[in-house]
Amino acid sequence: MKWHNDSDATMMERIHSGQPVFGLFVSIPHPIIIEMIGAAEYDFVIIDCEHTTTGLEVVEEMVRAAELVGITPLVRVATLERTEILRLLDCGVKGIVIPHVEDVQQIDEVVRHAYYHPIGQRSLNSGRAGSFAKYSLQDYIVQANESIMIVPMIESIAGVRASQEILAHPQVSFVLEGAADLSQSLGVPWQTEHPDVQAALAELHHIAVQSQVPYATVARGEADMVRWSREGVRIFVLGDDRNTAFRAYWNKRNLYRTSGGWK
Questions:
Q1: Separation between Cα atoms, residue 217 and residue 229, nearest integer Å
Q2: Is residue 128 classed as helix, strand or coil in its secondary structure?
């Protein structure tokens, strides 16, 4: 069976070739959610371990589901602790999304835990991520160091101000905006369309372009898609699975209720 994005191109290769990629945050801790998202022809998921209680065993099953449907599994971590990052990568996760980045030292710490020598000091293991030593582990180390993605989320005005140094780090794959928490840091919580928030996002995007780092946006509507695609953005996170499902359930219920003659 061929899946929608079966290709020799990696996610980053598609981004650098100018192709758009679409993803979702995933908060529901079950692999069938990943299968559904893959069947809906998304390109990647960000399994959320920051705002959820999702356990490691479930993450591993979700990663298997992502592999089954040919989409890229990233994980948003809760901490920068060494063993958390190590075990996620040993599950087969392809990238680490780092929330609330405000200085380059946070990137340094994750890189040290996520990459093998000579870039980092990730503990050596011959488990799932290395195909249980079926192939050369020396070759696996090289391949892993070439393919792991590090994605800082800039979610505060302090992060925006430090973003030039953050995005200069050679291991940063792309940067993801976090307009919700950014709005709170600017004193206007949940007002993501507030002029101050939009100005900060524009500044972050400008720095990303200058730094030649791909910029990812959380598209909150069609107007966002039009704006950011015209700005050259090619990475779009379309919200999360819970809100997407809720809106579908809510809209369908209201449509049928109205069609039945009830207000």
A1: 10
A2: helix
Question: What is the four-CA torsion angle of 44, 48, 53, 57, rounded to 10 degrees?
Answer: 40
- DSSP conformational letter for 16: H
Distances from the Cα of 256 to the Cα of 11, 243, 246, 249, angstroms: 39, 20, 16, 11
Q: Of the candidates 136, 132, 91, which has an alpha carbon nearest to the alpha carbon of residue 114? A: 91
Q: What is the pLDDT of residues 206-257, one digit of tens each?
A: 999 999 999 999 999 999 999 999 999 999 999 999 999 999 999 999 999 9
Which residue in the block uniquely carries the two structure tokens 């948003």? 76
* 3-state SS, residue 193: coil
3-state SS record for 59-124: HHHHHHHHHHHCCEEEEECCCCCHHHHHHHHHHCCCEEEECCCCCHHHHHHHHHHHCCCCCCCCCC
Peptide bond into 214 cis (omega under 30): no
**C-alpha radius of gyration, the chain, whole number:** 19
Q: What is the pLDDT of residues 25-83, one digit of tens each?
A: 999 999 999 999 999 999 999 999 999 999 999 999 999 999 999 999 999 999 999 99
- In DSSP notation, 203-223 reads HHHHHHHHHT--EEEE--SHH
In this structure, of 101-105, 126-130, 189-193, the range with the lowest mean pLDDT score is 126-130
Ramachandran angles phi, psi of 173, nearest 5°: -85, -45
* Residues found in the chain: 263
Tens of pLDDT, residues 105-136: 999 999 999 999 999 999 998 889 999 988 89
- The residue written with tokens 């598209």 in the block is 219
Number of helices followed by number of strands (H, E) in the chain: 12, 8
Closest to 179 measured CA to CA, from 151, 198, 206: 198
